[in-house]
Design goal:
The protein is mainly β. 4% of the residues lie in helices and 50% in strands. The protein contains two helices and 27 strands. Strand 2 and strand 3 form a beta hairpin.
Length: 285
């Protein structure tokens, strides 16, 4: 059953059973995120936003290389040859607490073909003024050190004059298999979205991104240092995704890349990581 959160003109709907996803976010009558009717949602992938737990983007070939062992993973998105976006978006979340402007959700993972390491994760969504605040926390519940990552996958509505801008220091180039190949210097983006063709992970992000159009100004903020941006001229949305690590980070690390460069987090048994993100919305002036 979907939950509604409201603060002034901001309305957010959350569907715990579908990956704890944000089914929709509106400023008055105008959608901020892609917001189909909840009754039409069959998957979090059709929703406005979902959490990326315990990794973001792709793990190449749906095979995880960790501490000398290969772990086959479920290919979890149709014809996609890689494991994608973790497991949280495909699992029901439990409601721990809820009120008029907030909800706290939880997901417990005991290790399976989607991800071999047990973990617990909590997700809090809160509306405050003109802002949606989100927090994710993950704890390694397995008996060994485990890789971990967090992030969000919001789909922002792309209107006729949508323009995205943010600062960064690098961009990971993408091969034909949609996996990163090399890092090149980049100052970020400041571009009209209408004909923008991008599907990259940026690092050295300063934690602030802007999306402006004729209807509204949206600010995306996070304490995470990497940002995946995806859109092209066939899409009516632009995905602006704060993430903790580079795409395919675990396997890149196994191939010799530095963990810090990749943003790869390793949690000891019982150790936790936490991430925050907010979406602030105001009418265009």
């Amino acid at each position: 059953m979907a939950l509604e959160l409201q603060s002034g003109a901001l309305l957010c709907t959350v569907e715990p059973a579908l990956g704890g996803c944000i089914a929709g976010l509106w400023l008055g009558d105008e959608p901020v995120l892609r917001s189909p009717p909840v009754s039409e949602l069959a998957s979090a992938r059709q929703a406005g936003c979902y959490a990326l737990v315990p990794f973001s983007n792709r793990i190449g070939g749906a095979s995880l290389s960790w501490q000398g062992t290969q772990h086959p993973l479920v290919r979890n998105d149709g014809d996609e040859p890689h494991a994608i976006h973790g497991v949280g978006w495909q699992r029901p979340w439990n409601v721990l607490d809820a009120g008029e402007g907030f909800v706290m959700l939880a997901y417990e993972h005991r290790g399976d073909g989607g991800w071999p390491f047990a973990f617990d994760c909590s997700q809090t969504l809160r509306l405050a003024g003109d802002r949606l605040e989100m927090t994710l926390a993950l704890t390694n519940q397995s008996g060994q050190p485990a890789p971990a990552g967090l992030g969000w996958h919001p789909y922002f509505v792309k209107r006729s004059r949508s323009r995205v801008s943010f600062s960064a220091s690098g961009r990971w180039e993408m091969g034909p298999d949609k996996l990163p190949t090399e890092r090149k210097p980049s100052s970020g983006l400041d571009a009209d979205c209408g004909f923008l063709d991008v599907d990259h992970c940026y690092d050295g992000w300063d934690g602030m991104a802007h999306l402006r159009d004729e209807k509204m100004h949206v600010r995306i903020q996070s304490d995470l240092k990497r940002l995946v941006v995806f859109t092209n001229d066939t899409r009516d949305y632009v995905a602006i995704e704060p993430v903790s690590h580079v795409n395919n980070a675990v396997n890149l690390h196994a191939a010799g890349r530095d963990a810090d460069e990749l943003g790869l987090t390793v949690l000891q048994p019982g150790e936790s990581m936490i991430a925050g993100m907010s979406i602030s919305v105001e009418k265009a002036r």
